[in-house]
Predict the 3D structure of the following.
Amino acid sequence: MKRQSAKVIIDGRARNWLGVNFWSRAGGPRMWRDYDPVLVREELRSMRDLGLNVTRSFAYWPDFMPQPNTLDETSVERFVDFLDAHLEVGLTTIPSFIVGHMSGQNWDPAWRNDRNIFTDVWFVAQQAWYIRELVARVADHPAIEAWLLTNEIPIYGDWVNRGIGTIDHASVTSWAQILIDAVRAGGSHAPVSVGDGAWGVEVTGADNGFRVREIEPLVDFHGPHVYRMETDPVRQNLGAAFICEILDIGGKPVVMEEFGVTSDYVSEEHAANYYRQILHNTLLAGATGWLAWNNTDYDSLADVEPYSHHPFEMHFGITDKNGAIKPQGHELRLFADLLERIDASGLTRPDSDVVLIVPSYLEAQYPFTQPQDKAVVFDVSRQAYVSAREADIPVGVAREFDGLPADARLYLLPSAKQFTAPGWAFLRSRAHAGATVYASSFLGEHRTQRGTWWPDLDETFGVRRLSRYGLVDPVTADEVYFHFQQDFGNIRAGETLRFPVAGNEDSRAYLAVESAGADVIAVDGQGRPALLRHRTGAGQFVLSTYPVEYFAARIPNVNPSDAWRVYSALAHEAGAAPDVWVETPDVVVGTLVHDNGTEYIWVVSQSDTHATVTVSSSRGRLTDLDGHRREQVELDPYGVKVLRREDEPQ
């Protein structure tokens, strides 16, 4: 399958944005009241010196529009000077209009009077007027790179918390259309997006009204905001990458619009590690832009909102209160140097023979299904993505909702309670045509229709179910073992894999079966089938009777889970083994290809210790970027090295 590699195109050229969300140290959100043009230029120059090329800026709404049908001329004049300052130092900017929400507080214009943001006709017209008029003032300024309608408007316009009622996605989409039309009416043809964080049902499973599918035709790029709190370091390091993968909707580019860390939560060393992992892993996942939160710290604003009540918000900067570069700023500098050296605007991801299926139950509004099921789809899909990456598989992520690609050799359906009947028919046809299809059983986390929604399970997998209606077959041990009875891919007979167990009384369960034609590849500690293979047509189905991905998704500090061994074996079975790899799951490998044919290989450590690894390739030879042959790579904790693959000299 083809994997998302879309670029933001401006004036016919692909752009890789690398920059920061920007507020000046003088004023923070109120910088337009306390505007210091000398300090602003100093701050922008420090960003440019780090190799950054863009900022995201904010027209603080209460200041820019103090009354209906009124722009504050002083704020506009200062904003024009701000744009001029960008040109002087060699930067561009992406302004955001409706601000709105910022750093733990909502900021209403004084005249809002609690009107509904999305459905009050007069108030929507005022927003459109504001955007149209402000764009008209600066549309032709060469410092304008793109536009964002808002900053995290789902938080600012949270209908449920305001007691307004259910979220009307149709009204939200119409609101976005009206405001984007206002940008165009103001005379700008620059790229535009919403600034909502890409937190829609297609990503989170929770419908906040901002449906990515409905907004996608209106925007020029998707812009995830990622600040996840996790329980596992590898899920943390690869979590933003997975979000980039599942935002492959409508073929639009993905820009990491916000990410970052507050120094109040993390050591300097681990702040740098986090930036490094986010930058490189999202690049490998198809991201084409990165806007860190944010440019500087705000210690001088400790006595004013929002920093007085959210003090940790003062210290997200890549520079400190004095303008000194923090470790995460140095990571941006290294990343900028790399992007320039390899001409990242010309990079694409190679096609994949391995598809990770995201069931449509994540986003589809099927009748009489439960909200908990949507969240589980996200969690197990992300965990499966982690395991595939640990196996160095260049996995493609495909949504059942969009229709699954028919050109894969291996399909992964992890810990799936629910999958549609047409989806199963498609997988049966692919297996009959020669593909390997893997599925692991999962009954769900609640008692509403608890069970596998898999039609013709026995026939499909060559088994006979032993399960009882309305009851589960519980997993009582704290660990499950897969004892391999025969060779399977690159797993040898006699090997044992270990899977810690988690879940509640509904989900901590296995699928009791006996073989009815399937080969028993592995048994559990009680001798029951744990992994079975059923050959059909030219291909095969592989069944795990345990939801190993679900177990792992519910366990802190579990990765690398032994599921990576299962996935590696499946890839070998399917003829889809990676063509570049390492032997340890603590280091992941990924490939990007330049338009000129040059292949670049990323080697990314997921370990908190120094490591030396051998990187193997099925073809060509590996060199560093200076052309020196490299088969062994030394990595710092959570370190990254980039190699080049070349043809062997004749």
